[in-house]
Design goal:
Elements lengths: L1 H16 L2 H6 L13 E9 L2 E8 L3 E7 L6 E8 L11 E6 L2 E8 L9 E7 L6 E7 L11 E8 L9 E7 L8 E5 L6 E3 L14 E8 L2 E8 L9 E7 L7 E2 L5 E4 L14 E2 L7 E3 L1 E3 L11 E3 L3 E5 L5 E5 L7 E5 L6 E5 L11 E5 L2 E5 L17 E6 L9 E11 L11 E8 L9 E9 L7 E7 L5 E8 L8 E2 L4 E9 L2 E6 L2 E7 L3 E10 L1 E13 L2
Parallel strand pairs: 31-34
Antiparallel strand pairs: 1-2, 2-3, 3-4, 5-6, 6-7, 7-8, 9-10, 10-11, 11-12, 13-14, 14-15, 15-16, 15-17, 18-19, 19-22, 20-21, 22-23, 24-39, 25-28, 26-27, 27-39, 28-38, 29-35, 29-39, 30-31, 30-38, 31-32, 32-33, 35-36, 36-37
Length: about 550
């Protein structure tokens, strides 16, 4: 626990310090960051037809941005600056509406050099001007004195009559088990720590950062995040279920990781804490993204990703879906003829003697690894057959690109002894290590097969000489996000690309948000041991 706390503390401080270079050179990404300075861990509340985003800023302040549509955000500025305490550091804030006023809480510290051991509360009538109320230290009757004590998400005990009090869920280390802490309030303003709820699991639950709790039907869904959990070294947010707001809670193991990454050595944070949006007309989840330890990309800093719609599927699993409001990001449609393409891999492809089949035109492209490679002496016939076809058009990925369409992938199977895997996906052409175009790029490999065992990958591709793939992220077992493609089924897709960030939805369900290497502007389509039909392709600029 101490190791994770130290790692998180260092990352947060580094993120908030930032650098002047970041502020001066980067103004584009998915989809919002302050025009100057550094922010971290945003949360959102909807009030009076407008979205209010509050976040840590500069180490000792709370930053506000607002949006009328939930897509295009505008800076408001610092609305709370911590002053007059022995330690003025501010950690993640949450805002809750109580009657006609608003209550803000954030994680804090009693003194310099102490652990994260206070919750401070403020009150406002207008969401702008905040008055300090009180603070709550760690209650050592229930929680470890050397543990964390941070942000709290609260909900009414009675949704039909919020005046009956609130439950609070905060970052804490219970004495007798992992997880999180709880508080009780008679009025939603004044809180008192209570014993932590039980978590029913046969494995260790780490200290959980709280992304909120929400009722869907007759069940409560709580979001908790941390690094190095359940086989994922990267930061992830996990779903816990309960029949009552006071528990007991249990991990939803079939769709446990709601967001996050599998982890890269030395870079545990790409996603940060995903949170339920308070009081929104639709059930939404916000999710921040950071480039803090990422190199070889155009992206920098921390960004607020497009909000997602929270849905519960027929099996009762929480998943993240595309929010239709995000269509407001679409700019002008870009007319592309897919006949204008080049085969990047395999080398030696010619019209007279094709190695892989590439056909189509207009808004359609078919790629098929249909030939035996033994007849091509320069290719390794013992390895899986792959193909990358890139469109010749160079898109402005700094301003942003949206690709929508349909994908139907059929695995090529050679019998019961065939151990090769089949993939279909996308390729963002990049610059080689010397800054030149030498067959480098970023690939999204969606495995074709059954949902319960398939695993999809994102990573660096190098095609000069031979095909080499370095996996940076894997989405498979225990993930609520899309793990791949069903064999022979039509799937829709939405791929967003902007200044080093990508986000992919399959059938309007989130697959992943990740980064890609410094790009040339050319986009391609990738197949491995498969016949893949990319159809109904449409391309749009972004108006951010």
């Amino acid at each position: 626990m101490a190791k994770c706390l130290g790692l998180l503390s260092m990352l947060v401080l580094a993120a908030l310090r930032g650098s002047g270079a970041d502020d001066q050179t980067i103004r584009k990404g998915l989809i919002y960051r302050p025009a100057s300075g550094q922010f971290w861990d945003p949360s959102v509340i909807y009030v009076g037809g407008k979205y209010y985003m509050y976040s840590m800023y500069g180490g000792d302040s709370v930053w506000l941005a607002t949006s009328k549509d939930g897509v295009h955000w505008a800076d408001y500025g610092v609305v709370l600056k911590s002053e007059g305490f022995k330690n003025n550091r501010v950690w993640k804030p949450y805002v809750t509406k109580i009657g006609t006023k608003f209550i803000l809480n954030h994680g804090a510290f009693t003194d310099q050099g102490t652990n994260n051991n206070l919750l401070r509360f403020y009150e406002s009538q207008d969401l702008i001007h905040w008055k300090y109320l009180y603070e709550i230290p760690i209650d050592t009757n229930f929680y470890r004195s050397n543990g964390r004590w941070d942000h709290m998400y609260s909900i009414p005990k009675n949704e039909q009559n919020p005046s009956q009090g609130s439950w609070g869920y905060m970052v804490a280390d219970p004495i007798d088990h992992g997880g999180f802490g709880m508080m009780d309030s008679p009025d939603g303003v004044h809180f008192k720590p209570i014993q932590a709820p039980q978590i029913l699991a046969d494995f260790r639950i780490p200290t959980l950062e709280i992304g909120g709790i929400k009722r869907f039907g007759q069940k409560y869904y709580l979001l908790g995040g941390n690094v190095n959990h359940y086989g994922f070294s990267g930061y992830g947010v996990y779903t816990y279920l309960a029949d009552s707001p006071t528990g007991p809670f249990r991990p939803d193991l079939d769709a446990y990781r709601l967001t996050g990454t599998s982890g890269i050595d030395g870079n545990y944070f790409v996603h940060v804490l995903a949170c339920f949006v308070k009081d929104s007309p639709e059930d939404l989840v916000s999710d921040p993204f950071t480039f803090r330890n990422v190199s070889d990309t155009d992206g920098q800093g921390t960004w607020f990703l497009p909000m997602r719609k929270a849905i519960v599927d027929a099996q009762g699993h929480l998943r993240l879906a595309y929010w239709r409001q995000n269509d407001l990001v679409k700019g002008k449609e870009i007319q592309i003829d897919t006949l204008e393409n080049s085969v990047l891999f395999p080398p030696g492809q010619t019209a007279a003697n094709p190695i892989v089949q590439v056909s189509g035109g207009g808004n359609h492209l078919l790629i098929h690894t249909d030939k035996d490679w033994k007849q091509f002496s320069w290719l390794d016939a013992g390895r899986t057959r792959k193909a990358i076809a890139v469109l010749n058009h160079r898109f402005d990925l700094t301003s942003g690109l949206i690709i929508e369409g349909q994908i139907n992938a059929k695995a090529v199977f050679h019998g019961y002894r065939d151990a090769s895997k089949s993939y279909a996906g996308f390729f963002i052409e990049g610059l080689g290590r010397e800054g030149q175009e030498k067959g480098a790029g970023t690939g999204i490999l969606l495995e074709i097969g059954e949902p319960q065992w398939r695993e999809s990958l994102i990573g660096r591709i190098q095609t000069e000489g031979s095909f080499r793939f370095e996996s940076l992220d894997a989405t498979g077992r225990a993930s609520a996000t899309v793990t791949g493609l069903d064999d022979g089924k039509d799937h829709t897709f939405r791929l967003w690309l902007r200044s080093g960030q990508m986000e992919l939805h399959i059938d309007d369900l989130l697959m992943q948000s990740f980064f890609y290497s410094t790009a040339t502007g050319r986009i391609g389509f990738l197949v491995q041991e498969s016949e893949v039909d990319f159809s109904k392709l449409r391309f749009y600029s972004m108006n951010l």
